[in-house]
Amino acid sequence: MGKLLGQGAYAVVREAVHLETGFKVAIKSYDKYKLNQNQNIKKSVQREIKVLSMLSRASLDDDDLLLDGDENAQSKPQPSEGDEERANGHPSIMKLYDAIDSYRHLYLVLENCDGQMLHSVVKEHSEQSFGSYRRCLPEQACAQIFYQIILGMSYYHGKNISHRDIKLENILVDYRSAEKTTKIIDFGFAIQTKDPHEKLRTFCGTPAYMSPELCKKKEYSGPASDTWAAGVLLYTLLFGT
């Protein structure tokens, strides 16, 4: 594995290359001892694998990903040059290619996306807004980024999936590209329902982006709450933090 791309309390993300094909990916490595000490984080990782495997069309078996310390590492074939075409998913959603469950670690083989968190992009830019300079983005860039976010949301909402934590930190943007390539990431709070109109009860997400129903701890619509959060995100992009 190559350079460090990111690090958190439970996982480390590094760049990697499939030696036979030269196909670049990102490997997210979880320490299973830490996961098993925190059942909420463990369930979040399992949810993310389940949802991303559906959105990426990756054929991962839930039974292979119990995180129970099985000494025999379980894995599907490694990514090749054709994997991106087979796991076509949606261009605005980070793809999951594979999950490898070993004795000490859980490895997620993810799409290696250029760019940085949208939160960092906003912090690095300032625009004049209402007579003062604020940390925000030009309107044209906001339109390009937001359009891709909405396309990704529409895709997973069409599969009865709700993200439930749309925010600046969960969007990757390659701001240097002409099209401002944008990816939705982190599906740890995501849920799939049988009925698109089903009301949800679990209180989750980030307070500043929560819909009124969530703030009042009432039943809520997953897609509607995602849409509210996207509106907060757009306002922040346009008018600053």
Tell me about this structure.
With 241 residues, the chain is an alpha+beta fold. The chain has two domains: 4-111, Phosphorylase Kinase, domain 1, CATH 3.30.200; 116-239, Transferase(Phosphotransferase) domain 1 (Transferase(Phosphotransferase), domain 1, Orthogonal Bundle), CATH 1.10.510.10. It contains seven helices and 14 strands. It has helices at 32-37, 39-56, 83-86, 118-123, 139-157, 212-215, 222-239, and strands spanning 4-7, 11-17, 24-31, 96-101, 105-111, 116-117, 127-129, 132-134, 161-162, 171-174, 181-184, 191-192, 199-200, 220-221. The strands form five sheets. Strands 1-2-3-5-4 form a five-stranded antiparallel β-sheet. It has a three-stranded antiparallel β-sheet with strand order 6-10-11. A hairpin with a 3-residue loop joins β4 and β5. α5 packs antiparallel against α7. The radius of gyration is 18 Å and the shape is globular. It starts with a strand and ends with a helix.
